[in-house]
């Protein structure tokens, strides 16, 4: 995440004094110019740099033979119980949707000069079921997409796909169980919204790829659709 010169208002400075923010990884107090992560944690993130070779990297290869993927990237390698794993955990389970918004924006700003978003016409966050959305209170993938939208102005498509149900969390399941858990979960309900689009599927983490494969397979039922993928993390065990 490249730093840039920012002017802060007196109100922002006072708010930072009254309600100091902390780094989601190490818990240290953030300066007014830092957001979500302190500079030291940001510097030591296990970045993948897949965006520098978006059509052939470890993430993209996960999906070869499963659906026709154009390009893809994951921002960092996800190692359970590591310091950086707290980013995903707090985003999904810590009631902190602002993490998705700020990270989506910062990562998009970092990737824009490399041309990663060239050719993408719309953002497509992985939808949650109504039950899961009520439980969590927000869709973390949508928050990431909103951050990317802020930096790129790419539109977010909503309402083209319905997620039928939430059966159980993917967290502790095997690869086969994950595939079965999301099989037939997505239903295309408005193909006019995605006809002819190059969609960037947005998700928080890829562990086996089952959710993205199920969603992409349904999206590709609409004519002339192209699929790329963007996630915050990819399981280290999946690409090692």
Automatic annotation (TrEMBL):
<dbReference type="InterPro" id="IPR051910">
    <property type="entry name" value="ComF/GntX_DNA_util-trans"/>
</dbReference>
<comment type="similarity">
    <text>Belongs to the ComF/GntX family.</text>
</comment>
<dbReference type="InterPro" id="IPR000836">
    <property type="entry name" value="PRTase_dom"/>
</dbReference>
<protein>
    <recommendedName>
        <fullName>Phosphoribosyltransferase domain-containing protein</fullName>
    </recommendedName>
</protein>
<dbReference type="InterPro" id="IPR029057">
    <property type="entry name" value="PRTase-like"/>
</dbReference>
């Amino acid at each position: 995440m490249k730093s840039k010169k920012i002017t802060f208002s007196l109100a922002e400075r006072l708010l930072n004094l009254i309600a100091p923010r902390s780094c989601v990884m190490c818990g240290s107090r953030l300066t007014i110019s830092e957001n979500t992560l302190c500079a030291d944690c940001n510097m030591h993130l296990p970045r993948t740099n897949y965006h520098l070779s978006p059509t052939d990297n470890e993430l993209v290869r996960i999906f070869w033979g499963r659906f026709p993927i154009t390009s893809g990237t994951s921002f960092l390698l996800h190692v359970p119980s590591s310091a950086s794993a707290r980013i995903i955990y707090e985003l999904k389970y810590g009631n902190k949707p602002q993490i998705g918004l700020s990270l989506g924006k910062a990562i998009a700003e970092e990737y824009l000069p490399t041309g990663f978003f060239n050719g993408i016409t719309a953002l497509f966050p992985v939808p949650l079921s109504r039950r899961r959305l009520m439980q969590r209170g927000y869709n973390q993938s949508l928050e990431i997409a909103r951050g990317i939208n802020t930096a790129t102005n790419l539109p977010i498509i909503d309402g083209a796909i319905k997620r039928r149900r939430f059966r159980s969390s993917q967290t502790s399941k095997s690869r086969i169980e994950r595939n079965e858990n999301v099989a037939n979960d997505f239903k295309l309900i408005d193909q006019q919204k995605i006809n002819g689009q190059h969609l960037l599927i947005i998700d928080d983490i890829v562990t086996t790829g089952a959710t993205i494969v199920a969603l992409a397979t349904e999206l590709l039922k609409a004519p002339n659709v192209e699929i790329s993928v963007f996630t915050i993390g990819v399981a280290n065990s999946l690409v090692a």
